[in-house]
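User: Fold this; tokens only.

Assistant: Input:
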Amino acid sequence: MKILKKFLPLFLFFGIYLGFGVYYNDFYAVSPVIIAFGAIIFAVVYFKDSINKNIDYVLKGASNDKILTMCFIFFLSGVFSYITKEIGSVDYLVALILNHVTPSILFIAIFIVSCLISFALGTSVGTIVTLAPLLPGLANGNTEALALFSGCLLGGAMFGDNLSIISDTTIAATQTMGVRMLDKFKANGLIALTASLITCVLIYLNQPDFSANIHNNVTHNFWVILPYVAIIILALCNLHVLIVLTLSCLLALFIAVFQGIEFLALSKLMFEGMQSTFEIALLSLLIGGLAYLIEKNKGFEAIIELISKNQNKSVAIASILIMIVFINMAVANNTIALLICGPIAKQISERFHLEKVRIASFLDIFSCITQGLIPYGAQVLILLTLINQKISFTQLVSKSYYLIVLLLISIFYLVFFMNKNDKQLAKTV
């Protein structure tokens, strides 16, 4: 009951959003921004501190540097997507894929390419923005093919979001848990790579028969895809994702100017690109403020107290993972969820002498799985938007083999080691 009271504003947001989605049979009928804003108004009045103090908490939470960084990533990703589409990068890349990949491995190719880009860039949203515009053209009007292409892209995007050393989720998980990124990468890598190999087999066995008959009279030269190449190379140089996106956008703009596109048209295009991500950015700001308000009103302390009543290490691990899933579902942002859950998980790990590297790894894994499977997450929203809502959320999730396989392998790993070799997950001091 104590936890319910502390998290009531988040329950309100979650319940109303799902309620509207079920009632209208459309999770995008009512903007989550409006619902989140209403939840914040309720929370500011609901919590016992003064309204002015609660407003300060909301503003401080919304101005968290991680949240602001994500907002800038959204804006730059939108600019990058619109400019590269205008200069012909998308058309050329579609033709390039069709000319050099046999139809039998086309779906696997999309999955692998999205894995590589997301791993190099460290952001699932940037990967989706880069590749999603290609999918309707590749599917050639085949809904089943588009669903599988979209599932491959979503899974590949979350692969890098989870595993990349420069990913915000990796940074959040390792910093809040106090472990090294390389150690987390090693613990995480075997599970993710195993899941990706199984996914390739499933994709191959379940791919539909279709003809990717696209008429691509591409007149552009190969240099129109240089912005995509730049993203990968710059990311491998271990630069900040904002620097990577900014330099890639500048390169795309230079190519656009070289093609003779007028400055006024480009400026309008850049704003349209940013505008396409406004809803997601606003939602991140509002949810970040709401989460911090709950934290300052000791909502997360109540969770620690509840878990501490049971001295079983396996229960402690399960509680941490259930908590990250719940928080991620509530805030619809895996980086925010990790920032919230990480410090709590660290305290629980220290209290129960759990191996923090593995806990950090599974926190990241389960947050990324949850983020990829909720209908109101940024990744799903932007993917469905960029393919013009040509498939439903259910169709997308049913073809997201990587996320499903990763979940099953992770559960098997946890159950196996908790029952057979507890020392791997819970070390004795």
